[in-house]
Design goal:
Blueprint lengths: L3 E6 L3 H17 L2 E8 L1 H7 L5 H36 L2 E8 L2 H9 L4 E5 L15 H8 L4 E4 L8 E5 L4 H14 L7 E8 L4 H16 L3 E8 L2 H12 L2 E6 L6 H7 L1 H9 L4 E4 L1
Parallel strand pairs: 1-2, 1-4, 2-3, 4-5, 6-7, 6-9, 7-8, 9-10
Antiparallel strand pairs: 5-10
Helix pairs in contact: 1-3, 4-5, 9-10
């Protein structure tokens, strides 16, 4: 199949891990890996402004130095990506953008099946030393599935799908199965339903999801647990590790939405417990 997987490159260990996960995915499931390097020209311009003649000249010199350095680093990121892909023997493409990092990745994601990034990103490496918010914003935009990869992760064989019966959860499940399906590789999915009361329709949708995933050739296990959704998902992810957690960005009652964009998801990413596969 002609899958296209985009990986964001920022020169960090997180980016290197995302690249390796992307390479492993393409080797197992086929397709192409697109390495995206970004020169954050708008950010560099904004951080190098000055007032007055002296300040203006200094700001101009600083801006030119930062832009030159950023271009050199971006080229180096792509060179390393190319070497990694050639060593792995996979099909790859190189993408070079001079733009806001988020916009560059969204642009590449328009015609991609997934975007893989480190769980901590440093695309604004010329102007900021702390991690940026690109992961969260990519998942909010929802141009395609986003995979956030902790440092040192490999491609897990098992997936834990947080399934609440919502349309968004079904979309995330379908997207994950499409990206990872293969006639030669048998994979496992655990459908986790967190019970927070009586919801007969959710059980019906859970059975349908089990049947659908099984028809795609996945080994399917169903778990029903009680408790707070965020705590239960984190607990089960620990039990099944290594695994990738698959979820929709928004849930039937907002449970997954609160999980992901709230403090629980922030803790999951901060702990670097497991890769996250999120889709609207």
């Amino acid at each position: 199949m002609g899958r296209r997987i985009v990986v964001g490159l920022d020169g960090t260990e997180y980016s290197a891990g995302a690249t390796q996960v992307g390479i492993q995915a393409v080797r197992k499931f086929g397709g192409s890996l697109i390495g995206v390097a970004v020169v954050d020209s708008p950010g560099i311009e904004a951080s190098s402004r000055g007032a007055g003649i002296g300040a203006y000249e200094y700001a101009k010199h600083t801006r030119e130095q930062r832009l030159s350095d950023a271009h050199q680093k971006a080229e180096a990121f792509l060179d390393q990506f190319e070497r990694d892909c050639q060593a792995a023997g996979i099909h790859y493409e190189l993408a070079y953008h001079v733009a806001v990092p988020l916009q560059a990745l969204v642009d590449e994601g328009r015609f991609a099946d997934a975007i893989v990034v480190g769980s901590r990103t440093h695309f604004r490496f010329e102007t900021r030393s702390e991690p940026g918010d690109t992961v969260r914003r990519l998942m909010e935009v929802g141009v395609c599935p986003v995979v956030a990869v902790p440092k040192g992760s490999a491609l897990p064989e098992r997936a834990l799908v947080a399934f609440d019966g919502s349309i968004q959860a079904a979309r995330a499940l379908r997207a994950y199965m499409y990206v990872t399906s293969s006639e030669s590789v048998r994979r496992s999915i655990t459908l986790l339903h967190v019970c927070e009361g009586t919801a007969e329709d959710e059980q019906v949708q859970l059975i349908r999801a089990q049947q659908y995933a099984g028809a795609w050739g996945f080994d399917v296990e169903v778990l029903n647990r009680t408790g707070r959704a965020g705590d239960v998902i984190a607990e089960v992810a620990g039990e099944l590790a290594p695994c990738v957690v698959v979820m929709g960005a928004y849930g039937r009652r907002g449970v997954i939405q609160k999980l992901f964009f709230g403090s629980t998801a922030a803790r999951m990413i901060e702990r670097e417990q497991t890769p996250l596969f999120v889709y609207h």
